[in-house]
Amino acid sequence: MQHAAVAWVAPAMRFYLFLALTAYSALTAAEPQICRWLGDKTAAVSFTFDDGPAVHVRDLAPRLEANGMRGTFFIIVGRTPDAPQTGPKAMISWPELRDAAQRGHEIGNHSWTHRDLRKVTDLDHEIVASAERIREQVGVAPLSFAWPFCKSTPEAKALCLRHHLAERGYHPLYEGTYDPAKALAETEAAMAAGSWLVRLSHGIDGAAFSSHLADLVSRPVWVAPYGTVAAYAAARERAKIAWTATEASGGSLAVTLDDQAPATLRQTTLTVAIAAPGTEVPTSEPGTIVRRVGERVLIDLIPDGRAVRLRW
User: Which among 21, 34, 68 has a CA at the least distance from the CA of 218?
Assistant: First the structure.
C-alpha cells in the first residue's frame, strides 16, 4: 500500500504530537519538572497495526505481551466480523477486539470503509459513526484515528479531533522481515533525540518482531499504545506544577491542567522529576509511586490537582 506524507496536528491546543526530530534535554533544575516521557524514559515507541487482519491479535499481540508491552490495532469497522473467522484472510472479530482491549491494547479507528477521505462526502459515517461503533462493541471509545492511505483534509481533521484525542498519519512502513540492524539504528536515533518512534505496519514477520521486542526490553524506552503516548504528550504540554516546600526535608507537590483539557488527559499518569542529590527515597501517601534514579527522584501522579506530600 502506497502512503503519502501528511501533517501532524495535535488536538485542542494545536500543538504537535509528532516529536521525531525534537531534541531531548535531561532535567537538571532543582524545581520539579514533568519528564518528557513516562518513567523518565529516553524515548517513546508505539507499534501500530492497520486494517485488522486476525493475525495481528492472534500472533503479534501475544508477542508484545510476552515482553510486557502493548500496541495499537487500527481496525476498519465495516470489515469487522461478529464472530472469529478462519483462513489466511480472516479479520479480527469484535469478541477478539474486546479481549485485546481488556489485555491493555488500544483499539483505534481506521474509518468505516477505508476509502480515501479526501473524496468522501459522508465524513460523519467514516469518522464519527465508526468511533461510536467501536465504543459500543469494545466498551472503550477509540483515542486515536489513523487516516486511510494517510490522506486527509482540513475539514476531516477538524471533525476527527472533535471525536478522538489524536490522529496518526504517515510513518515509514515497518513490515515483513524487517532488518534488525535498521530497527536498532532507528531505536538508537529516537533515544538520542528523545523522540517518539511510531511504527506503522500492516504485518511483520513474527520472528523479526520478537527479536526487535527483546532488544527494546533492554533499553530505556517507553513502549506504549499510540493513544497512550499521545495523551501523555498532550497532558505534559498543558500541565502546571505547584510545589511548596513545607520543611527542610519535604514538600507538597500537585499537578493541574487547564480548564479546557479533555477528561481523558486528567486521568493520564505523568512522571515528575525532582533534583535531589543523595541516595534516600522520600516517603509519600500509600499508592504513590516514588523511586530514585541517580540524582533525581521520580514521582508518578495524575494531574487532578490533589497534593502529594513528600518527606525525606
Answer: 68
- The predicted model scores a pTM of 0.89
Domains of the chain: residue spans and CATH: 43-219 (3.20.20.370), 238-311 (no CATH)
225's grid cell: 499504545
Confidence grade of residue 247 (pLDDT, cut at 50, 70, 90): low
Taking the C-alpha atoms of residue 267 and residue 272, their distance in angstroms, rounded to an integer, is 15
Q: What is the pLDDT of residues 249-261, one digit of tens each?
A: 678 999 999 999 9
Beta strands in 20-154 (DSSP E): 33-34, 43-51, 72-75, 106-109, 144-146
Residue 199 corresponds to which amino acid? R
pLDDT at 10 over 50: no
The span from the CA of 22 to the CA of 26, in Å, is 13
Cell readout for 184 is 536498532
pLDDT of residue 30: 60
Residue 305 has pLDDT above 90, yes or no: yes
Angstrom CA distances, 50 to 168, 203, 263, stand at 11, 8, 27
Residues 16, 7: contact at Cβ < 8 Å?
Answer: no
Instruction: Output the CA angle 281-25-6, nearest 5 degrees.
Output: 125
CB 163 within 8 A of CB 127: yes
Contact residues for 140 (Cβ-Cβ < 8 A; gap 6+)? 101, 107, 134
